[in-house]
């Protein structure tokens, strides 16, 4: 792929575009142009009354307004949002890079693959919050997401994370249109990810067909906790 191709970066649950800041700087140093998107409801102080359709429309519109086809990168829960958004603007997407992303079968939601006690806990927290959004729990971040990070790095990440509208977890997606696409896909696979069962994200990706995989030694938050190694792997994915 040419360095002329713009890279669109899409975060997952609890995150926003600011989490990509260091990755973007490293990409710029290597001659790549990038843009980090922030889903509706995920900016600081955003209204949490958003729908899954709002996510899909925002992403498809952001892609569609690009002058040339782009490379789209999706982290974690961004996976299934891209499954819904990209078919609407398929002519504007040159390549898709998934990073330990939730890629769902047709008619399934992310919560369909989450243990009952976890999803019920999140539903309760969202109800108690008063705005339908799930708070971010530092024990969850330390124990499952940023397991390789220092205390200082975890504190910096916590400063960026926001409460997450529950709709991202509960919406069942239409995966049929995405399954028919003929767009190159690559998995940037963080091998130290403890947020799911070992190999789960790899298996989700392999279910999409035979596509390239680039492995890096990062936890689920590699884009923030180890941006140098992460960006090196991302560039490999771009250049395949």
Instruction: Give me the CATH fold name.
Output: Rossmann fold
Biggest sheet descriptor: 6 strands, parallel
Summarize the helix and strand pattern as letters.
EHEHEHEHEHHEHHEHEHH
Question: What is the CATH architecture assignment?
Answer: 3-Layer(aba) Sandwich
Percent range for helical residues? 25-40%
On the 0 to 100 scale, the average pLDDT is 96
Strand order across the largest sheet: 2-1-3-4-7-8
CATH class, named Alpha Beta
The fraction of residues in strands falls at 15-25%
Looking at the structure, what is the overall shape?
globular
Oligomer description: single chain
The number of helical elements comes to 11
Domain count = 1
How many strand units? Answer: 8
Q: Report the span from N to C terminus.
A: 7 Å
Which homologous superfamily in CATH is the superfamily? Alpha/Beta hydrolase fold, catalytic domain
Unreliable stretches covering 5 or more consecutive residues: none
Radius of gyration: 17 Å
Secondary-structure-derived class: alpha/beta
Could you please describe the fold and organization of this structure?
There is one protein chain. By secondary structure, this protein is an alpha/beta fold. The chain has a single domain (7-239), classed as 3-Layer(aba) Sandwich (Rossmann fold), CATH 3.40.50.1820. The chain is 38% helix and 15% strand. It has helices at residues 21-29, 52-64, 78-85, 116-129, 138-145, 151-158, 167-170, 176-179, 200-206, 222-225, 227-239; strands at 7-10, 34-37, 70-75, 93-99, 133-134, 164-165, 185-190, 212-216. It has a 6-stranded parallel β-sheet with strand order 2-1-3-4-7-8, with helices on both faces. The chain has a two-stranded antiparallel ribbon with strand order 5-6. Helix 1 crosses helix 11 and helix 2 crosses helix 3 (78-85). The protein starts with 6 loop residues before the first strand and ends with a helix.
